[in-house]
Amino acid sequence: MRFATLLTSLILATILLSACTRTPGPTSSTAAKAPGEPLLSAIREDEVKRDLFALADDNFRGRRAGTPDELRAAVWVAERAREAGLEPAGDDGTYFQFYPLRRVTVAASTRLTIGGKPLALWKDAWVTSPLNARLDGPVVWLNSLADTVRRDLRGKIVAMPLQAPTPLPAPKMSLWAMRYTLAGIGQQSAALRSRGVAGIVLTADATAEPSLEFVGHRYEDGLYLLPSMPLPASSVPVLLVRQAVATQLRAKGARLQAELAANDYLYPSMNVVARAPGTDPARRAEHVLFSGHHDHDGIGTPVAGDSIWNGADDNATVSVALLAIGRAWKQRPGARSALFVWHGAEERGLLGSRWYAEHPTVNKASIVAVLNGDMMGRNAPDSAALLGSIPPHRNSKALVDMALKANQDHTKFNLDTSWDEARHPEGWYFRSDHLPYARAGIPAIFFTTLLHPDYHTPRDEASRIDVAKLTRMTRWMYATGWAVSAAPQRVTVDPDFKLER
Asked: Can you give the residue ranges of the Peptidase M28 domain (predicted)?
């Protein structure tokens, strides 16, 4: 009922916002070629800081996709866009583009017992993928995968310790323990499924045990998909349990009983879409798309007593950067129009940008380029990165050249290209909202100041953001978009562009 009440309020807010947001088109004095220089002074540090501390506040409870908190944050963004004078460019004359999130979770009715003794779900044991299944049988304990040789395991419930994956995640890679655990589970599960087992129980090793609540929160959340995306095909249940449970599993006559159930339902997420018209009659129907995401991870495992994952850098920084660029564009419009898309559900798998790339609210052919940002406010003051700037990730040399020139002329960051290399272990290029557009054949680049130790923890707070650096990054992104807008010809996709995956 709380969710339904909030959704009704959001619909009313949508109506109210759309009723008062139509801005006048260009007058005869502005309907001409835009001035040659971007108005960098219009992007003000005090306004960026004000918006950042508001959006990354505990009030929004981490803006988790598909929750009332994400929807409230989206309404906040839309209201700020309205105040900036941006036109609504979502569905039906509003700032919003709703889309359906499919979420599949492990049902609370799930029951697990070993030898008749219950295991507490999400405390002692984690179901790694939601499904409807029943297991009831003796447990076959294996010390390692070597024990599978010359043994018939078809139809058996197999338990064994989690083993280190091969290869290990790269040293100091973000979310290292989680990647270690997920990779280990994936490799062992695949090997055991190939032997025809009926169920798999893996006991945490010394590396995975300290991070079980963190990793387990991911499993408790379940799966997020768009309706067009298929569910994982496997029907073999895989359980992750604490080290202490190994004693029960190894006991003579150990028997596992599991009644697994899944919930499968739809609820809304949303993109926020706004527009600032261009001044050139011949080019104002074309759009430079500025992209970011307004969601984050919501309420999670407490760290030092803090359970709200505010996502100040990831990605309130870029959400407020887009608002600042919108204000600058209104003060000095570019030749082409600027389109602003604050995507939802990025943290759940780039779902908002995937939806918009497939269902744009403007003619897809009118999108000249996508300038995406993700995490733009941390690390050394003069450091930054532009992903999509070197092959195989570069899909438009012309667009990259404009970004590099804007940096050279205006912001002068020292650029780190190593994170854009195909061999970089983070695969950072594939983890933000420019990707669906690049795959759709639209020139796209990604502005970032890269990862840091507070990434995806409750420590990602507004107080830790270098606001001066964020303001400078915002100006770089804006100046690049301005150059794209002013160019006589559209930037084009490189004919040999092909991603490595």
From this structure: 271-478
Asked whether residue 295 falls in the same domain as residue 148, the answer is: no
Distance of CA 190 to the CA centre of its chain: 27
The Cα 162–Cα 404 span in angstroms is 46
Taking only the tens place, the pLDDT of each residue in 160-217 is: 999 999 999 999 999 999 999 999 999 999 999 999 999 999 999 999 999 898 888 8
- Token representation of residue 130: 């939601």
| Token output for 18 | 């759309």
Strand partners, 112: 258
What domain range includes position 145? 108-260
If asked whether residues 384 and 444 sit together in one domain, one would say yes
Partners of 271 in the β-ladder: 97
Contact between 278 and 362 under an 8 Å Cβ cutoff? The reply is no
- Give 14-40 pLDDT, tens digit per residue: 544 544 444 444 333 333 444 578 999
**Are residue 331 and residue 480 in the same domain, yes or no?**
yes
- Amino acid present at 179: R
- Residue 479 CA to residue 38 CA, distance in Å, equals 6
Q: How far is CA 443 from the centre of its chain?
A: 20
* Contacts of range 414-417, beta carbons closer than 8 Å, 24 or more positions apart: 414/382, 414/383, 414/384, 415/384, 415/385, 415/386, 415/389, 416/383, 416/384, 416/385, 416/450, 417/385, 417/386, 417/389, 417/390
User: How do strand 367-373 and strand 111-114 relate by DSSP bridges?
Assistant: unpaired
| Cα–Cα distance for residue pair 291/469, rounded to 1 Å | 19
- Shared domain check, 232 and 169: yes
Residues 93, 188 share a domain: no
Give the largest CA-CA distance in the chain: 87
43: in domain: yes
Name the nearest CA neighbour of 322 among 90, 43, 98: 43
Q: Are strands 223-225 and 117-118 parallel, antiparallel or unpaired?
A: unpaired
131: three-class secondary structure by DSSP: coil
342 and 440 assigned to the same domain? yes
Residue 474 CA from chain centroid, whole number: 20
Residue found under tokens 């100006």: 475
